[in-house]
Write a structure and sequence with these properties.
Layout lengths: L2 H18 L9 H4 L1 H11 L9 H18 L7 H27 L4 H4 L2 H15 L23 H4 L1 H23 L6 H27 L6 E8 L13 H13 L8 E3 L5 E6 L7 H12 L4 E11 L11 E2 L6 E11 L6 E4 L42 E3 L4 E7 L6 H9 L5 E5 L8 H17 L3 E5 L4 E4 L5 E5 L5 E8 L6 H5 L2 H23 L6
Parallel strand pairs: 1-2, 2-4, 3-4, 9-10, 10-11
Antiparallel strand pairs: 1-14, 4-6, 5-6, 6-7, 8-9, 11-12, 12-13
Helix pairs in contact: 1-3, 1-4, 3-4, 4-5, 5-7, 7-9, 7-16, 9-10, 11-12, 13-14
Length: about 550
C-alpha cells in the first residue's frame, strides 16, 4: 500500500462522518466511520521504521477536517475567520487525540485490546471540549443521533456520552471482525465472536430504545404555552428598529392565540433591545410596557430575552468580566439575560452562563489581552459577558410552579441543562436567535439539540427562536409543533410539567468522568513506559 492510499482512507472516513451527521445524514454510518482511521493507525503502528510518532496525526487530520468542514461550514455566514479557525482547530484537536491513542498503543502489548483505549481518550476529549473556554462540543459523537430519537431513548440513563460510547465500541468490534475475516482466522469462533458482539451491541440498545419510546407515557400536568417567532433580521433590523416596536411585534403575535387559560408567553433571545440596568429595573420603559400587558392578562407570565447591565456598588467585589466606565472609576458587567415577569412585584432573571466563544467570551483574554481585538461583532454587546454561578429556576406564584430557561448555545450542554432540572425545573424553555447563519444546516442542527435534552431529562421544552425554528418538544423528544425558518408566527400548546428526575439528571456525565479517570491512568502508564522504554502488559 502506498502512503497516498492512507490519505484516501482518511478522506473516506471524513465523508462517512459527514454523511452520518444531522440534519439529513444517516447516523448508522457512524458505526463504520472510524474503521478507516483504525486501519491507518494499525498500518503505521506495524511499520514504525517508516513513520514517526506523529505520523498518525498527519494522516487522520484530513478525515476530521472534512467532517468539521462539511457539517459546520455555516459558521462562515456570521464570521468567515471564525469558521476557518473553528474547523481547522477542532479537526486538529481530534487528530491529536487519535495520535495520543496511537502513542499509548505503541507502548502496550495486546494491540487488539489496546484499541479500546481510544474509547476512553475520545470521551475524555469530548468532556474536556464541554468545559474549557474554547468549548465547541457541537460534533460530539452522541449528538449524531439527534434526528433519530427512537434509537436513543436510553439517553435518559447515559446522556449523549452513551451515544459516543456506542459509536466507538461498535466501530472497534466491526474493525476486529474485518481483520479476522481478512486473516481467514480459524477456528470459526474467532470470527463469530466479534460478529455476534457487534450485532448485539447495535441491536440491544435499539430494541431497548424502541421499547421505551413506544411505552413511555407522560403524566398529565398541563401548562398552556404560547411561543412567538417575530422573524426580525438580526443583521438589518434587530439593532435598528425602535425597542418598543420589537416588543409590540411579539405581543401582537401572542394576542392572536391568547386566552384566559394561557400560562406563559415565551419570546426569543434579545427581544428586549433597550439597555436595561439591573440596579434600576423600575426605570425600564420596556419592562413597564410588558408589565402593563400582564396586568391586562393577569394569569399569563412572560419569558423574554434581553441584554442587561449591572453596576458594581462601592465596596462590592469586582468580577473578572467587569468593564470600567469610561468617565468614572466604577465598573459594570454585561449579560445575556432572560426575564420572567408576572403580576408580582418581583422581576426574576437569570444570565446565560455557557457563552459562545469569540462572540460572548474571548477565550483566556485575561491572560492574553491582545485577543480582545478579535472579538466577533454580531451587534449588541461585544466582549466577555458575565455569568451566573448557579443554575437559577423561576417560580410562579401562587402555585409554586417551577421552570427554567436556557439561552441559545446553552442547549448544547447536556449536564448543564440537567442542572436546572435537578434544581427543581418541571419544564424548560429555550430562547435563541438563529438568524446569523441564513438558511443553512446551522439552525436545524441547533434545533435538534433540544430533543436530546428532552430525552435526557424527560422534560417538555418550548423553544422560541427569533427567526426559527420555534417548536414544542415532548418528553420523548418528538417535535410536536413548529414554525418554519424565516417566517413570523405564533404557536400554542399545552405541555406537561414533570417532577421526576432521570438517572442522567441525578448523576450527570458519569460516563465521561469514569473515562477521564481511566484515561489519566493510561497516560501515566504511557509516560512511565516511555521513560523506562519498556512495554506494559494489559
Amino acid at each position: 500500500m502506498k502512503k497516498y492510499h492512507l490519505i484516501l482512507l482518511s478522506v473516506l472516513s471524513g465523508l462517512l462522518l459527514a454523511m452520518a451527521w444531522p440534519t439529513r445524514g444517516f447516523p448508522g454510518l457512524l458505526f463504520i466511520a472510524f474503521i478507516p482511521l483504525l486501519f491507518i493507525e494499525d498500518y503505521i503502528d506495524a511499520r514504525r521504521n517508516d513513520f514517526n510518532r506523529f505520523s498518525v496525526l498527519f494522516y487522520v487530520y484530513p478525515a476530521f477536517l472534512i467532517w468539521c468542514g462539511l457539517t459546520t461550514y455555516w459558521i462562515w455566514k456570521s464570521t468567515p475567520a471564525g469558521a476557518v479557525g473553528a474547523v481547522m482547530v477542532n479537526a486538529l484537536l481530534m487528530a491529536f487525540v487519535f495520535n495520543i491513542f496511537h502513542i499509548t498503543k505503541r507502548n502496550i502489548y495486546s494491540p487488539w485490546r489496546a484499541h479500546y483505549i481510544l474509547v476512553f481518550y475520545w470521551i475524555s476529549f469530548e468532556f474536556f471540549h464541554l468545559h474549557w473556554e474554547l468549548n465547541w462540543p457541537w460534533l460530539n459523537l452522541g449528538n449524531g443521533f439527534a434526528n433519530y430519537i427512537k434509537w436513543i431513548q436510553w439517553y435518559e440513563f447515559t446522556g449523549a456520552f452513551g451515544g459516543t460510547l456506542w459509536v466507538l465500541v461498535v466501530n472497534i468490534l466491526i474493525y476486529h471482525l474485518f481483520i479476522k475475516i481478512k486473516q481467514k482466522a480459524k477456528p470459526i469462533k474467532k470470527i463469530l465472536l466479534p460478529a455476534v458482539s457487534a450485532l448485539l451491541f447495535i441491536l440491544i440498545p435499539l430494541i431497548i430504545s424502541l421499547y421505551i419510546y413506544h411505552n413511555y407515557r407522560e403524566k398529565l400536568n398541563p401548562v398552556s404555552i404560547i411561543i412567538t417567532q417575530p422573524n426580525i433580521d438580526p443583521y438589518t433590523e434587530q439593532y435598528t428598529l425602535p425597542p418598543d416596536q420589537i416588543i409590540e411585534k411579539n405581543l401582537d403575535l401572542a394576542i392572536s392565540e391568547l386566552d384566559e387559560e394561557t400560562d406563559f408567553i415565551v419570546c426569543p433571545e434579545s427581544a428586549i433591545q433597550e439597555q436595561v440596568w439591573e440596579n434600576r429595573l423600575e426605570y425600564s420603559g420596556i419592562l413597564k410596557q410588558l408589565k402593563k400587558f400582564i396586568y391586562e392578562h393577569p394569569r399569563t407570565g412572560i419569558v423574554i430575552g434581553a441584554s442587561t447591565f449591572r453596576e458594581f456598588l462601592p465596596g462590592e467585589e469586582i468580577s473578572r468580566t467587569a468593564r470600567k466606565f469610561s468617565d468614572v472609576d466604577l465598573y459594570y458587567d454585561a449579560y445575556n439575560t432572560v426575564f420572567y415577569l408576572d403580576t408580582t412585584d418581583i422581576i426574576q432573571l437569570s444570565h446565560k452562563s455557557r457563552l459562545t466563544p469569540g462572540v460572548e467570551i474571548l477565550p483566556y483574554s485575561r491572560y492574553l489581552k491582545f485577543i480582545e481585538k478579535f472579538a466577533i461583532d454580531l451587534g449588541g454587546t461585544i466582549g466577555t459577558l458575565g455569568t451566573d454561578p448557579e443554575r437559577k429556576v423561576f417560580i410562579r406564584q401562587p402555585d409554586s410552579l417551577k421552570f427554567a430557561a436556557v439561552i441559545c448555545y446553552e442547549s448544547v450542554f447536556g449536564e448543564f441543562f440537567s442542572q436546572f432540572v435537578r434544581n427543581g425545573a418541571e419544564f424548560m424553555f429555550i430562547i435563541t436567535n438563529d438568524g446569523w447563519w441564513d438558511d443553512t444546516p446551522g439552525h436545524r442542527q441547533h434545533l435538534l439539540f433540544a430533543p436530546l435534552r428532552a430525552i435526557e431529562t424527560r422534560r417538555s421544552i418550548a423553544r422560541s427562536a427569533n427567526t426559527g425554528i420555534s417548536a414544542f418538544i415532548n418528553h420523548r423528544g418528538d417535535i410536536c409543533q413548529s414554525i418554519g425558518y424565516w417566517k413570523p408566527g405564533v404557536i400554542k400548546q399545552d405541555i406537561n410539567a414533570n417532577s421526576r428526575l432521570t438517572f442522567y439528571t441525578k448523576y450527570g456525565n458519569y460516563i465521561a468522568r469514569i473515562s477521564c479517570f481511566i484515561s489519566g491512568i493510561f497516560l501515566l502508564y504511557t509516560l512511565a513506559a516511555a521513560l523506562m522504554k519498556r512495554k506494559i502488559r494489559i
